[in-house]
Design a protein that fits this description.
The complex is a heterodimer of chains A (256) and B (238). Chain A has 256 residues and is an alpha/beta fold. Helices cover 31% and strands 23% of the residues of chain A. Chain B has 238 residues and is mostly helical. Classes of the chains: A alpha/beta (256), B mainly alpha (238).
Chain lengths: 256, 238
């Protein structure tokens, strides 16, 4: 890529695999994630799939250093994550954009990290171009449409040219057009070598994007398999039922 | 009754005359009023904005007490503030050596004491609300606490302006504090409100009324600035 040397050491350091061991997160005595152990390698797109309340967001948030772990460990190539790391970006379902122009939103992110001011313009231009926002760069970010806002949200992650982007249900609030645009962006980013880990409860989306699937249910890891075999012949009964469109409710028993 | 009304309209037309002729005494008094209150609002903002933001964002011992005091101090009676500042600045007071009593500086100090709590308390509430929305996002972007505070202050600038204008409105309209620490000395510490009180007592209704009209006009301007700041905030925040 164009700016390989701009962001300090980014490409020298290997950040994958992401290793999660016996991860537990409790809130008010409820274990919201329980005994999750998995390793995420450098396949292009890993999708964390599961119904609402499965713990998908919590796992993603932990991977960005936004949660306190109750037990176990979560390490990126043996390093604990901190939100300040510039090699990794996190994208919320609903972006909170700053009350300033589109370009200034990107500049803000750069200013949070140790990046040479001389490189701002070219980094911003690249991110705007990739997300199709060049025309809108002087527009107030808050008046953009929902789809444009989410594209800016992704540009804001991409502007740092990170090695990993974590996305929490990035299309949950978008219409089909907006969703298609975001999915296209995600694929493009992944093809350029940035690892994508995203959550969704949308099977179709998982099917379209995933190289491997992490399937969660009620805070537990049910299976972690390549997408092909997950959709071809899921190992667990729960995944079979989820794919078949049966609702996974609280009383679900594996041996039912 | 007719006589009183007649007096009033006479006084009113003389007042307008004074205003349009830019009567030197009048201009001097208005100038000092604006200088004192604008200085006070600037200083109070420099203290109150970061103070309010820090109270919203940082947790520390005694924060609850400070917040409670701040809210109580929002409605401080100006005369009491004047009295306390008077005691501090008077010759036998702790800052007596500075010789500030009965100077515009003393008036600025008193007004700063009066309006800093207003600006700080309104800032705190604004930043608290904004933090609900922004905190997670800014944290995930990698912002540290000090940067977050700066960002939130800038993001809420239009809302914060309403607090600053409210502080100015209170400063320019109060009479008790500036009267006590300024002393209403002609050509030195006489401002609009103290002049109105004095001229009314002396019977120079025209000058008092002229000053009153100007004071109301300034209040109207400030109020409309507050309203347009709110409007801008609403437009920008939605």
């Amino acid at each position: 890529m164009l700016h390989t040397n701009i962001i300090a050491n980014m490409n020298e350091v290997n950040v994958l695999p992401l290793q999660v061991k016996n991860l537990q997160i409790k809130k008010n005595d409820n274990a919201l994630l329980n005994d999750v152990t998995l390793t995420i390698e450098s396949s292009e797109v890993t999708v964390i799939l599961g119904p609402n309340g499965a713990g998908k967001s919590l796992l993603l948030r932990s991977a960005h250093g936004l949660e306190t772990l109750t037990k176990g460990s979560l390490l990126w190539n043996s390093h604990a994550p901190q939100p300040q790391h510039s090699w990794r970006a996190y994208i919320f379902q609903k972006p909170v954009l700053l009350r300033r122009s589109v370009a200034a939103n990107l500049e803000y992110v750069l200013s949070l990290h140790n990046i040479n001011k001389a490189d701002y313009a070219s980094l911003i231009d690249t991110a705007l171009e990739h997300t199709g926002l060049s025309q809108l760069m002087d527009r107030n970010a808050r008046v953009l449409s929902g789809g444009e806002q989410q594209r800016l949200n992704i540009a804001r992650a991409w502007v740092l040219q990170p090695k990993v982007i974590l996305l929490d249900e990035p299309t949950a609030e978008l219409d089909p057009n907006g969703t298609a645009a975001i999915e296209h962006l995600i694929k493009t980013i992944a093809q350029q070598g940035t690892k994508i880990i995203m959550s969704t409860h949308d099977l179709g989306q998982a099917h379209r994007l995933a190289n491997d699937i992490v399937f969660l249910h009620q805070g537990g890891l049910i299976e972690h398999t390549p997408a092909k075999s997950f959709f071809g012949q899921p190992q667990s009964k729960m995944a079979q039922d989820f794919i078949a469109g049966k609702l996974l409710n609280g009383d679900y028993k594996t041996n039912e | 009754m007719v006589l009183v009304l007649n007096d009033f309209s006479l006084a009113f037309s003389r007042a307008l005359q004074l205003i349009f002729q830019l009567d030197p005494a009048l201009v001097e008094i208005i100038g000092l009023s604006l200088r004192v209150s604008m200085s006070a609002v600037c200083i109070a903002s420099v203290i109150g904005l970061p103070m309010g933001a820090a109270l919203a964002l940082y947790k520390f011992h005694g924060r609850g007490l400070i917040v409670a005091l701040l809210n109580a101090f929002m409605g401080l009676p100006p005369v009491v503030v004047g009295l306390v500042v008077y005691l501090i600045l008077s010759r036998s007071g702790p800052l007596g050596v500075l010789g500030l009593l009965f100077t515009p500086t003393a008036m600025i100090i008193a007004q700063v004491c009066l309006i800093t709590p207003i600006i700080a308390a309104l800032t705190r509430q604004t930043i608290l609300d904004a933090n609900d929305e922004y905190h997670e996002q800014l944290r995930a972007l990698g912002a540290k606490a000090s940067r977050m505070m700066k960002t939130l202050l800038w993001e809420t600038r239009f809302s914060l302006m309403t607090g600053v204008f409210a502080g100015f409105g209170r400063a320019i309209a109060e009479v008790g504090a500036v009267l006590i620490v300024g002393g209403n000395i002609n050509h030195a510490t006489r401002v609009m409100t103290t002049a109105i009180a004095l001229e009314t007592r002396k019977g120079d209704i025209e000058l008092a009324l002229a000053l009153g009209i100007i004071l109301i006009t300034i209040s109207l301007i400030v109020t409309s600035l507050v309203m347009s700041a709110r409007h801008a905030a609403y437009q920008y925040h939605s």
